Amino acid sequence: MAINIDLLIEKINNLQDICSSTCIENSLELPQIVVIGSQSSGKTSVLENIVGRDFLPRGTGIVTRRPLILQLIYRKDAVEEYCEFNHHPTKIFLNFEEVKKEILDETSRVLKSKNDVCEIPITLKLYSSKVLTLTLVDLPGLIKVPASDQPKNIVLRIEEMCRKFVSNKNAIILAVSSANIDISNSDALQLARSVDPSYSRTIGVLTKLDLMDKGTDAVDVLAGRIIKLKLGFVPVINRSQTDILQKKPIEVALKDEKSFFDNHPSYKKNKLYCGTSYLVQKLHSILHEHIKFCIPNLQTSIDKMLIEYRNELEIIGAINFTPREYMFKIINDISKRFKDILDGRCELSSTELVGGARLNYTFHHHFAEFITQLDALGNIKDEQIRTLLYNSGGSSSTLLFAHIAFEKLSKQSISTFKPHCLKLVGIIFNELIKIIHQITQNLSLERFPIFNDKIIQTLVKLFKEKSDSTHKLVSAFIDWNIAYINTKHPDFHHWRHSIKEVEKKEEEIINEKNTKITFDPIPINLKITKNMTDQDLLEVQTIKALVTNYFNIIKKIVVDQVPKAIMNELVIKSEQEVQSTLFREVYEAEGIAETINESDEIKDRRLFLENMIRALRQAYDIICSI
Hints:
- InterPro entries: Dynamin, Dynamin_GTPase, Dynamin_GTPase_CS, Dynamin_N, Dynamin_stalk, G_DYNAMIN_dom, GED, GED_dom.
- Residues 27-296 form the Dynamin-type G domain.
- The chain has helices spanning 5-20, 43-51, 96-110, 154-166, 187-195, 219-222, 241-245, 250-263, 276-316, 323-343, 356-372, 382-393, 403-414, 417-442, 449-483, 495-512, 534-587, 592-595, 600-624; strands at 32-37, 68-74, 82-85, 88-93, 122-128, 134-138, 171-178, 202-207, 233-235.
- By secondary structure, the chain is of the alpha/beta class.
- The chain folds into three domains: 31-301, 3-Layer(aba) Sandwich (Rossmann fold); 316-514 and 522-595, Dynamin, middle domain (Four Helix Bundle (Hemerythrin (Met), subunit A)), CATH 1.20.120; 600-626.
């Protein structure tokens, strides 16, 4: 359904009012016309000509120190013009001198220094039968050099404020420039170009054409031959400083403006596209079309923000229980969520592993793959094994394979599992703590800092107790396997045949030797210095194979049994005791009411969310009615 142009702009004005009263303004980019220009560009006079009234404060230094949202509202039946301020909604202003004073008073209410500026806007509504419905945002004039009594950073602060408003992708930029200076040096156009490089949403307003040097004109600028703006330039004639001091009526000034363009040899051929009257009609039309273009994206943005704020408010929630009822509910929720997360019944993620899936991956991938890569003998050299073989034989012959050496090397290799298995206990312990932190965050228990800390401390203590007992169990499990080397293990049985083969080959090697033996004195520190014989090599390789085989058998046992021990002693027993521990240590503790004490930060956040949702609903209703 088509909607009246004026009504459309008024609805956006209503939306602007809602946004200005909340923080939505910082998140929602509204379609609006933003007026920028240097202090000497005649920006104030342009706005007064558009309104047809002398209503803006004037003076030296920075006069416009807060953004002024000027909402012109056409009322056909308005007997006389009147104004309203959003900060003073119950008062109607009929006298425009009072409007000037109110702008100054409201500015000073927020800004104590006359040389200070801020982004908090003042909203002025003007109802009249003599205006076209239009909304303009007037900003402080751009300056190059601060005055002696102004802050050194005032130039940058004003520029940053103006940049923030014109950076809004839905803002039409009304750039006011003086015709009697080089247009390429225009402060307004330079700022506009920094946020709108193609000048697709910038309208140029050219002032002071009547002050140009004799014999010159601004035709090339207006025709876009120097700087091309998609929305073009509009020339206007403002009142001079003398006119203002002599209180020349704006109605007279507008007639003089029309006469200037009607009679000027350079502009009269295109006089229909010159002057304040044409500028107002052009802005009215552009704003209307721009609003229609922006509405779908505005609705999408409001929808998105509503969903985000509602979700956050739902998480924060409202307190509808007594402290004891609330604590009872939370303890049951934590217990259920803890079990659900471990069992994989929680909200699933497609981007990362969570809860029980992380434990499973740690056991069967991270831990299992690491243990599988361990080497039985590590950095033990063959010479060390040969020495051990000799020593294990004692005073007896080493002809037969040394079982003592095999056991010693096997125990040494099995002991390498212990630090890694104990580290796994610590990893799972930390994962359980992460799960609890995740649960308390999802339940927004941060709003009760004391209660939240008590919950976490209690469960960390429980997990620590179970972790300590699991630590002892896993350590004992490795010790069991070190203490008894089971050569009767089914997977080790076939190596007996290999041992007999080695013994047979050793005997053959000895029988083949026919070397003379000499008896030399034994040195004090006796080491084996000769190269390994065939017999030595055979024995070393055989024991290495046997130790590696047995190590691989224990490796499979460790990969299988250690996760089971940790799951039972740490994870499952913790899960079984979460609820009872919380009831015993938290629910039955003294001072329960004090623990359900919401922080001021959470209270403020809830109030903020409620206000934002209320404002967004109003904004949504406005958008849907367009």
